[in-house]
Known about the structure:
Radius of gyration: 17 Å
Bound molecules: beta-D-glucopyranose
Largest sheet: 6 strands, mixed
Number of domains: 2
Amino acid sequence: MKVLGVDIGGSALKGAPVETTTGRLLAERLRIATPEPLSPVQMGRALAEMVAHFKWRGPIGVGFPGVIYGTRILTSANLHPRFIGCDGGRLFSKATGCPVTLVNDAAAAAEAEMRFGAGRGFMGKALLLTLGTGVGSALAYHGTVVPMELGHLPWKGKSIEKHVAASVREEDELSWEEWGERLREYVAILEQSMWPELIIVGGGVSAKHRKFFKFIKPRAKLVPAKFLNQAGIVGAALAAAGGK
Ligand code: BGC
């Protein structure tokens, strides 16, 4: 089945048609930069631009950085606040004229990694973290993915993602070691309560895992996402294909 997979992020939306039986991208991905946070209506237009670029007619899977219940968006920590409470599925379907399935971005990435990537065939307990503008998270057990919001554990009165996200490393000009040390503490907290056997790290920065993995020192096996930053696109497409 062919599905247009789209990953909505803090600084851009990225998408490509995906063959959902293999997880392969069928065309070079398109990146539309969003230097300003787009309102839901503007995001719908950007999505329509993506659809026009690929001359797409068919199902679309959209990964969104927030809590998703059905077609509704419940939180929007790093995007426009007007997304909160918005029926994103309906809005995006209307804007594109195609059926849209919404999924949490990190759960999408986890789905792609468990089906075709670093977690392929792994039946134990795996934790996937995406390090980007925020921190995305999902657990997988026996290959079934459960979306989590572990970037919002409280830390000194704020969400811990404001302390450990990849964007914070850049903004605060932290060295790899300083940032790695923060990740080490964060991962230790997660391990204490979740005891994953495998931790998969995605997000753009996972391409540079050699620079910071050595500081994390987890109990679990730590691996970069196989799809690196493309897991979100592939997983969003898988969500729309519904296991096909
Ligand atoms: C959001 C999550 C999302 C993560 C990564 C967090 O701020 O609450 O839903 O998965 O950022 O984008």
